[in-house]
Amino acid sequence: MKITRFAVIALLAAGTAQAQTPKQLDQQTAAMMRASFREQGIAKMDRLEQDAAQKACSQAKPPSEAVTKKIEAAELAAVKWPADGQFIGDWKEGEKLAQNGRGMTWTDASVAPAKNGAMCYNCHQIDKKEISFGTIGPSLWNYGKLRGVADPADPASAAIVKYTWGKLWNSKAYAACSNMPRFGHAELLNEQQIRDVMALLLDPKSPVNQ
Amino acid sequence: MRSTRLMAAIAAATAAVVAVPLLAQTQQPKSAADGLAEYRKMLEDGNPAELFEAKGEDLWKTPRGPKNASLQACDLGLGPGVVQGAWVQLPRWFPDTKKVQDLESRLLTCMQTLQGFDAAEIARTPFDKGEQAAVTALAAWISSLSRGMKMALPQKHAEEKRAYELGKRAFFYRGGPMDFSCASCHGEEGKRIRMQDLPDLTKNPGNGVGFAAWPAYRVSSGEMWSMQRRLNDCFRQQRFPYPGFASDVTVALAVYMGVNAKGAESIAPAIKR
């Protein structure tokens, strides 16, 4: 069986130059990517190197359920929870971060998380007062209120608070091919910045929950 | 006279754009698409791309470069010197270079072979500088001679088919610190970033919305952008490294988007926000 399959592939490859197997096309794509780009400023060539999650989510079709589950488990295991158990920061700082879409391009000077925005409004509705919001992600208006978070410190809120931290830290822990960046995992935001975004979403005093 | 009219049109359109967010706060927010359509309409009589088209036509017909030759013998795919209709069939396979080439990479070939310019040097030149500015103006003029025609990229040659397959893979290729691929923003219909509508480039995005609109004059930056430049800025926002001008990935992506746009009416050079 193995030999037959091999022979067929060899015949295809030798017979017609145009009959490329998907695997050959994948290899050619990888070579094309390496040859087509160069580093510029902070944007180095290692950005083209794909980890397991990126690789599995690089086709029009989503990966199999088994692969999806495997990626989600690995990404969840990589979530770093706040060392001091403090999940909630300052929603006002969170709003500033949510508005800020800057960071990590080759025209930015530094990869330090402190220089980056959280770019939330690019894709999400958050505070209804901001009408310039994107629609790639779901609306986050009333995020905490809709989930019954009256006090983020209450043990009754623990599950949703923890999930939200995990989602911000590593979105792929809950959806392998999520469009959302892995803000903590990829060092786009630091712990304090994530606390502040958490507050924007979950603090009952945040305008998001009015 | 012409430039006065242009300036007035730009000023009016800019005022309209500034007014949109204010209006939107008091009325039902106007969809970004409505705003853009209105905006385009206002500029219809005075798309500054006209100035680039005129410059491009001059550059095509004027003897230039070390060989002091014009580009009138340049074969854009329909035979030497045939410009009309060439744009809606690019990128395509060229037997002389044995490559699939987009408009910009084909222009580099002609500028080197006919005029004696150094194609690699032009490819390295920053956008809008030196001969890069010439390539942009030429692209504006050449695309204008296909205005109103339907996108019809050939897919007969094996290399054209292969370029489509590679372009598709590049389109879905996730990488960088934010895990973005082209598909992150352009893989679904009806999405937007902030107020900017995003064409779904995996299928026919409709007349002149996606691929069939570039080159285009960008009012926000006051610049003429070729498709090469559009892709360059997409990769910047994708947080990828820097794509080489006319590199294989840019041509393959153009094949993927261009074939997907089959039948869409070209409005290039368009005017964009």
What features would you describe in this structure?
- The complex is a heterodimer of chains A (210) and B (273).
- Chain A is mainly α.
- Chain A folds into two domains: 1-36, no CATH class; 91-209, Cytochrome c-like domain (Cytochrome Bc1 Complex, Chain D, domain 2, Orthogonal Bundle).
- Chain A has helices at residues 2-15, 22-36, 52-56, 65-77, 91-99, 143-146, 158-169, 191-202; one strand at residues 37-38.
- Residues 1-16 of chain A have low confidence and may be disordered.
- With 273 residues, chain B is mostly helical.
- Chain B has ten helices and eight strands.
- Chain B has helices at residues 2-26, 32-43, 49-61, 103-113, 119-124, 130-144, 158-171, 182-186, 227-237, 248-260; strands spanning 92-94, 99-101, 191-193, 196-198, 216-218, 223-225, 242-243, 270-272.
- Chain B has a three-stranded mixed beta sheet. Chain B has a two-stranded antiparallel ribbon with strand order 1-2. Chain B has a two-stranded antiparallel ribbon with strand order 3-4.
- In chain B, helix 4 (103-113) crosses helix 6 (130-144).
- The longest helix of chain B is centred in the N-terminal third of the chain and has 25 residues, at 2-26.
- Chain B is globular, with a radius of gyration of 19 Å.
- Strand 1 of chain A pairs antiparallel with strand 7 of chain B.
